Amino acid sequence: MAGFALRIKTKSGHQIINSLTKDSTMKELKEMLSNMSSIPANRLQILTGFPPKIIDISQDEEGIGNAGISSGDTLILEEKSQEKPSNPTSDSTTDVAMSGNEAEVPFEPLSQGILMKHIVPSDNSCLFTSVQFVLNGKIDSTINSYLRQLVAETISNDRDLYNDAILGKSVESYCSWIQDDKSWGGAIELSILSNHYGVEIAVVDTINAIINKFGEDQHYPHRVYLLFDGIHYDPLFLEPFDGSKIQTIFPVTDEGLLKQAQQLAQEAKSSRQFTDVDKFTLKCMVCNVYLKGQTAAQQHAKTTGHTNFGEV
């Protein structure tokens, strides 16, 4: 059987291997990757996909094709920390043994840095811009239309879950509405994008000083953070203390970072770093009327049927 190509990413760079097939065993793959990376096979951790997900490599005789590895995939190699005996007085980081998506052992904060906000444009697409930033590490506004279309298609294909009562309007109307670049995204869109990309989206709410987690019940292995001030979303990223590249995707088991996000929410609320929804100004994009506050906008929508509002 003809071999297929795999891209291998390690700390030292990228390589390509093309001497395996989908029927090659996991043991063969681990031996090859271990020799290539100098990581002992018993401490090798392989991730793939976007966002990266850990592959189960415990079944030595399983074909790599059955493990979901396909020709053209990029495999990210990491070295797991060496396991140490439990010691309540130790200040070292405890290794985490993963079974499926659940952490079996609690551990200390993984990330060494400070959580910071990246400001994105107030152009009615801030939610979509923020999501693609935390997934890609950069802003590319051309992706927003794709994300809106993805949401619309998901809703249209699951009308039992996304019915008129949930959407507040007909499926057809909602799908048309959300694909308009003047329409704001919210909880429905965050839930859909979390499920599509297989990542938990933690929204730091600075009004109520709480964190709302979308996809938490799915036990995804990775988490991203957004900041919400009442009407606007911004992505959060970790600025490492050592000056290395910023980080936007984190293990859900990083309790230290979650605590830092909770502290950020509390500090933002206490310093009133949020938008007062009763005082901000909106513009009806249908009739160009300016409205002050969320209540006025809701009343305008009720009396006119206009639901497209823009930030001012």
UniProtKB/TrEMBL annotation:
Example of a GO biological process term: protein deubiquitination
Chain ranges of the OTU domain: 115-226
Domain Ubiquitin-like: from-to ranges: 4-77
UniProt keyword Hydrolase, yes or no: yes
An example Gene Ontology CC term for this record: cytosol
Subcellular location: Cytoplasm
Entries under PROSITE patterns matching the protein: OTU, UBIQUITIN_2
Domain of life (superkingdom): Eukaryota
Protein name per its UniProtKB record: Ubiquitin thioesterase OTU
Keywords per UniProt: Cytoplasm, Hydrolase, Metal-binding, Protease, Thiol protease, Ubl conjugation pathway, Zinc, Zinc-finger
Lineage, uppermost ranks: Eukaryota, Metazoa, Ecdysozoa, Arthropoda, Hexapoda
